[in-house]
Design a protein that fits this description.
2 domains, globular
């Protein structure tokens, strides 16, 4: 009986803490969706379809204007398999409440977005993304320079027909999203070296940002 009481008390405390922090998430963010969209559009205007130059433009400006040393400037690319889709990503920032990555593939992919505990903003840098929701007879089309906002808790099918790269920004609770990112490793790919690389980079960046006071 005492154990049940302790567990109930612990759950109540954790639930209260979660609700308190969830209502105040805005104060933990260091990026703004509108600013990242504007930056993406200016990078495209400056470099067109030279995606490497577009990415360098984005990272260089973020380095200049982001307060504190919260960015990963080493362009460490790793494969990413999630929801049946496959691409590669470069993690620019990872913390408890935000992540910012370059995600894409040069040959196209398709899959499930996942249902997440964060809002996701997919700024198309090259190519185009299609999205579909049940009941619709037409795809949502997101061309170069646009942004696809997947709201927290929503889910879609998505497709990148050919080469497509994006600046992807998520804000909300990031750790629960990792389960979606890891699931395909255990159910399909068995690519444990990539799982380790993803975990190492993500963990390193999250811990480093926590030590700097960035939740």
């Amino acid at each position: 009986m005492r154990t049940l009481t302790l567990l109930a008390t612990l759950l109540a405390v954790l639930a209260g803490l979660y609700n308190y922090l969830d209502a105040r998430l805005e104060r933990f963010y260091i990026f703004e969706p509108s600013q990242l969209h504007d930056l993406s559009q200016r990078a495209i205007a400056a470099h067109g379809n030279d995606t490497r130059a577009v990415v360098n433009y984005i990272v260089s400006e973020l380095e200049e204007k982001t307060p504190g040393s919260h960015l990963n400037k080493d362009e460490e690319w790793v494969f990413n398999n999630a929801g049946g889709a496959m691409g590669a990503m470069y993690i620019i920032h990872a913390s408890i409440t935000e992540y910012l990555i370059i995600f894409g593939t040069a040959i196209g992919t398709e899959g499930h977005t996942g249902r997440h505990t964060a809002d996701d903003y997919f700024n198309i840098l090259q190519g185009a993304q299609l999205a579909y929701v049940p009941g619709s007879y037409e795809p949502e089309v997101y061309p170069q320079g646009s942004v696809h906002h997947l709201r927290r808790g929503e889910v879609k099918q998505y497709k990148m027909d050919e080469s497509c790269f994006a600046l992807e920004y998520a804000r909300g609770w990031i750790p629960p999203m990792l389960f979606f990112g890891y699931a395909d490793t255990f159910s399909s790919t068995l690519d444990f070296p990539t799982l380790w690389a993803t975990s190492r980079i993500t963990g390193r960046e999250m811990i480093a940002n926590l030590l700097k006071g960035k939740i």
